[in-house]
Amino acid sequence: MAPRVRFVYSGIRVRDLARSVRFYRRMGFRVVHRGSFHHGGRYVHLEYPGSPHRLELNFYPKGSRFYEPFGREPPFDHFGFFAEDPDDWLRRARRAGARFTVGYPDRPAQQLYFVTDPDGFWIGVYGPRPGPSERPRRARGPARPLRPKPRTPRRRPRPRQRAVA
């Protein structure tokens, strides 16, 4: 009989453990365990309500054999959520401090958004797009774009003609 294997958590490196815990708690995660490694690193396990997958935030100080300075981009692509209302999820993520990255329709009836956390990790969300009658209406503006009134050109004085003698 093959051993039972489950995918249970993802670990990401963070620059500032306290800042990252605050961010993910504002996103709705709850802390379930904190600990330290024998090499000096520290970690925090977080759970999101209704999801069996955990997020592990890892901090490795200088001097730890696992310490690596952050480059321009973290070497991790993204992790994602499903939300029944992706627009609401995006509003909550931005209030938590996430930076909006990109959003677009994905498949005919699905919306996809990406934000970044304080360390630049991408977080995605997908969910159903509202039907045509449920989509928020855009504010209606004037039928034509507003333009400033044209300035009346100032008349230049005609050059004086010299009298011919």
Strand content: 25-35%
Q: What pattern of helices and strands is seen along the backbone? A: EHEEEEHEEE
Q: Structural class of the secondary elements?
A: alpha/beta
Instruction: State the helicity in percent bands.
Output: 10-25%
Mean pLDDT: 78
Q: How many domains, as an integer?
A: 1
Radius of gyration: 28 Å
Could you say which overall geometry the principal axes of the C-alpha atoms support?
elongated
* CATH class descriptor: Alpha Beta
Count of runs of 4 or more consecutive helical residues: 2
Alpha-carbon distance between the two ends:
121 Å
Layout of helices and strands:
Elements: E1 9-13, H1 17-26, E2 30-36, E3 42-47, E4 54-59, E5 78-82, H2 86-96, E6 99-105, E7 110-116, E8 122-128
Parallel strand pairs: 1-4, 5-8
Antiparallel strand pairs: 2-3, 3-4, 6-7, 7-8
Describe the structure.
The protein is an alpha/beta fold. It has a single domain (9-128), classed as 2,3-Dihydroxybiphenyl 1,2-Dioxygenase, domain 1, CATH 3.10.180.10. 13% of the residues lie in helices and 30% in strands. The protein has helices spanning 17-26, 86-96, and strands spanning 9-13, 30-36, 42-47, 54-59, 78-82, 99-105, 110-116, 122-128. The strands form two sheets. A four-stranded mixed beta sheet has the order 1-4-3-2, with helices on one face. Strands 5-8-7-6 form a four-stranded mixed beta sheet, with helices on one face. A hairpin with a 5-residue loop joins strand 2 and strand 3. It is elongated, with a radius of gyration of 28 Å. The termini are far apart.
